[in-house]
Amino acid sequence: MSTIDAVAKPSPLQGLGKVAKYAVLVLGAFLTLGPVVWTVITALSPTDPETNIRHVGFSAFADVFDKIPFWLYFYNSALVTVIVAIGQMLSAAMAGYVFARFEFRAKNLLFGAILATMMVPMQVTIVPVFMLIRGMGLADTLLALILPALPTAFGTFLMRQYFMGLPAELAEAAQIDGAGPWRTFFSVYLPLATPGLAIVGILAFNYHWNEFFRPLIMTISEQNFTLPLGLVTLQGNLGTGSISTVLAGVVLSMIPALIVFVFGQKPLREGLTAGVGK
Predict the structure, then answer these.
(1) DSSP-derived 3-state class of residue 108
(2) If we measure between CA atoms, which residue out of 254, 233, 264 comes closest to residue 89?
(3) What span, in angstroms and rounded, lies between the C-alpha atoms of 107 and 93?
(4) What Rg do the C-alpha atoms of the chain give, in angstroms?
(5) Rounded Cα–Cα distance for residues 64 and 245 (Å)
(6) pTM more than 0.85
(7) Per-residue pLDDT tens over the stretch 217-226
(8) What is the distance between the alpha carbons of residues 63 and 234, in angstroms, rounded to a whole number?
(9) Which residues are CB-neighbours of 126 under 8 A, at least 6 positions away?
């Protein structure tokens, strides 16, 4: 046997390693997509209450709109989520730019304090935040969900790192042209930070669209319920065996997040890989 044949022939260990790799990938895909597929199939195959026989159809989805004010919950969730996502993008961009490009007293100490808030669970701060919101007269309003969520420690950290990777000479050139700090930020640095802003916006949208804990604490009136909180009222249907109606509501609530992911995966990927090739 020649040396070329010996090199070209794969060893049994390589074949077993490839099989093991694909087996792990298939298992991971099953664990990730299995519950989603089961949810969709169950929502599309409700049980007839008279015959107790499953049939394929969209009757469970129609039941969702009959049993709860779905569009009201959808509107509340969309309003809160979009405002919070845009607000976090702006606040993170401005705070990250200041920490990256300006020098002031106790800058590192203040930035460290902001990062420290990431280690504090929301359950620890929800009571003082609720007391503050109630003192402002905003209890049981959508503003109670929007205002506390506008600052973001993770977004500030992410945008600071992103702005630090941009050339400082851009600010010097802008100053020579007569641009002030605000114009330099909005006209020069902010357009270059679009991939980083996309990460902050997409993560904020996905998190607050599915958020349940804060709406549960901050809102009481049904007219202010967000979609995850409103879907809880469908759980009463489990007592009658209509689990398809509950899962149909879950499927409907997943569609906006899925759309955002499909259209936002390119800027998200660009933002996550920015600077890798430098």
Answers:
(1) helix
(2) 264
(3) 16
(4) 25
(5) 6
(6) no
(7) 999 888 999 9
(8) 10
(9) 213, 214, 217
